[in-house]
């Protein structure tokens, strides 16, 4: 009888989570219930499954509204009916047109109109909704004809008075208004709850026709959906056989290119993989991915194929990935096997600059009606909730700021704040709006609107109305099209090198970018700043602790640095064994044979499969089931127990003692939940090596590329410093040399105009375009005549030194600019046919120091260029101890001045610790540790230089200073504000350190890891 229920997927309207709506229907004794969310089908698939699980017949549809006015309700007779309604919604969403007042001629949809929007004539599939409160009107003569086509309508929007208040808050948020200003039309009626069926039927007892019509709709609506049936585009060619043959030919061609014609192991593996791929109907998936990669290569784009897809030799032969699975002993079963029916997983990265070109190609190549992004539900977030809810209660901006930043008891306890907090907590995890998934694309066999309506977010690519989990659940395998700045840096660096040095570097050549001697040397001492994935303080410290000097160790390091692996203690154990190979035993021979590369420590997800296969005697495919079951990937407790039992039965059949098998299973169980895919680590390691190779041999060009691609872990100042350390001479932006981005000419690096705080991009492009069209600027008057400029923009350029090529001082230029701009109109200027000679002015000579230039730079760039921060200090103290000789002062107290690069806040069992990264007076990096006790009296006080006092500790080749005392050092006063004490230190307050935090639990100590270091004796 309930044909119009809203869940919280009726965004900013409904208040009931889907599962709770179904449970309430079950408790109320309903045998059928309809989900009709407003203008969306987001919840219909989860709703259908949940209803079937509790024995309720699911009815699905859509409530069509325009500007919050109910037009009609559509109920799907079957799956085709969902398609019809989705196409109507899609047209409305993509064309930005109004929904029709009257439903189109649906063939598989029943339409129910509210009495406020009754058409003059009803077609056979159309009905009129009679709410309980409207029954009394049926006594009137004019309503008699309606009864023959009327049905019961008891909308459900909330469950209690408190939820009704929550509904009102949601409506106020949606309308961006105060609660007190909501009208009756803005909100639902107070009767929209799920009452008992008996109570509802009683209200219509005098109108059997209405009851009969309602029962008829319930009987006729039969939405049956086959979950897990593949929905992706089936064939790349026109048939399964055509796909099989094409994939086989491409794989064999790639096999010859990658391995030559005599590698029997590679040939056998290709044949084995092709059979599994064809049997599981994934040939088309591989070919579509290959097609996208071919287009990318044709455009000269770089890509990285990573994720478990790199476990496949077929993907390696097709050029989708660049990781040899044989070299790294990667198991195909981790990616795809006959027991794993879930979708394969190709994660493919492009430069952030090129990703949109790839997306445009995909949408054109595979028919816009069959391509869309996955959606995602953006939930109400903790801090924003209080701001949103506080706003509708009428709190001021200051009150909202305080409310969103305060925690728990810190908030005031007045009645309004109490309500804001109470209802705000109810909203946590509620969907707020739909958005585009960051990378997942669906390419379907049928038109996507058969399953969902499409929406058009601001980015310009259509999205489906459900998320990636629902997509997988109903049979869609998404294609992950990702982007990253690291690839952009590599790609741009190669182009800059060719332009600057005339050298064409093939960075995809693994003989250049993997296991190169000089790169390995820098890798082992952590000189990797700017390099993808291996530049953070933690990663550079790990590389030094391992003395990492080869590709395979880097692959391991890329995995054990991950939070889960480190959290388990495996990172600590791996470091110990790597540095002390004679101080442990392999507790079983299988661990020595299969995990010898990682000293018997399970570092990768693939290691679970190895142990299951070689110790447990299971197949590799079943080993992957074991891994997924233990890690909680969609398995029930019963399934997990079944997998566990099978493992022990198999171990017993191989003759292993039970105690030994229990320890092996314990290790697998403690590991599988946090493990990392080896293929993923290997892909990262290749890209890290590519970055490191470019930095090692073409450091200036590489760092310029890093600057232009937004840097990485650190702020841009650090990458500019690193360019300087690579031999570059850094120049401030120049009106006759610089462009939007940073450029390099030989060893001269000209910072780009984009780095200046006060210039907008349009103005910058005008400068560059004018210079390219009509030549260099000859004077400030010439510049102002040719480029429309305001005083603020001109002053920014003058103070940064952009007019230094003209040969006048900043003071002279400022006076001249102001005189010129007094009578100058800010408009597009036309070059004069005959240029008038530049007026010359005589100015008093006002000397400016390098110190003043440095303060100008801090103000405009956030860091000095003309000198180092150390040159700005008041103190004359110079320390003889530097980063490069710290290792010689083990256990000794040292004192030195350093410039703060970054701080990381980390929880430990002693309390919150800080780890600092610093630059010494020579420009080299070192690290510090700050224990909770020292931080009480000697805390960080923002960016700048500090005097540090502490003891040098060395942890596996990695020196750090455990700081006992520190003090921020005062800078010289700003000479530009000699007459204002309040402004003399304003500029240097802008110097900052990068700050990062983590909320993980403390890492375990060595004695807590519980990984045996001795051989277990057989019973």
TrEMBL record:
<dbReference type="InterPro" id="IPR016195">
    <property type="entry name" value="Pol/histidinol_Pase-like"/>
</dbReference>
<dbReference type="Pfam" id="PF07733">
    <property type="entry name" value="DNA_pol3_alpha"/>
</dbReference>
<dbReference type="InterPro" id="IPR003141">
    <property type="entry name" value="Pol/His_phosphatase_N"/>
</dbReference>
<keyword id="KW-0239">DNA-directed DNA polymerase</keyword>
<dbReference type="Pfam" id="PF14579">
    <property type="entry name" value="HHH_6"/>
</dbReference>
<feature type="domain" description="Polymerase/histidinol phosphatase N-terminal">
    <location>
        <begin position="1"/>
        <end position="68"/>
    </location>
</feature>
<keyword id="KW-0235">DNA replication</keyword>
<keyword id="KW-0808">Transferase</keyword>
<dbReference type="InterPro" id="IPR029460">
    <property type="entry name" value="DNAPol_HHH"/>
</dbReference>
<dbReference type="Pfam" id="PF17657">
    <property type="entry name" value="DNA_pol3_finger"/>
</dbReference>
<dbReference type="Pfam" id="PF02811">
    <property type="entry name" value="PHP"/>
</dbReference>
<dbReference type="InterPro" id="IPR004805">
    <property type="entry name" value="DnaE2/DnaE/PolC"/>
</dbReference>
<dbReference type="InterPro" id="IPR040982">
    <property type="entry name" value="DNA_pol3_finger"/>
</dbReference>
<dbReference type="InterPro" id="IPR004013">
    <property type="entry name" value="PHP_dom"/>
</dbReference>
<dbReference type="InterPro" id="IPR011708">
    <property type="entry name" value="DNA_pol3_alpha_NTPase_dom"/>
</dbReference>
<protein>
    <recommendedName>
        <fullName>DNA-directed DNA polymerase</fullName>
        <ecNumber>2.7.7.7</ecNumber>
    </recommendedName>
</protein>
<keyword id="KW-0548">Nucleotidyltransferase</keyword>
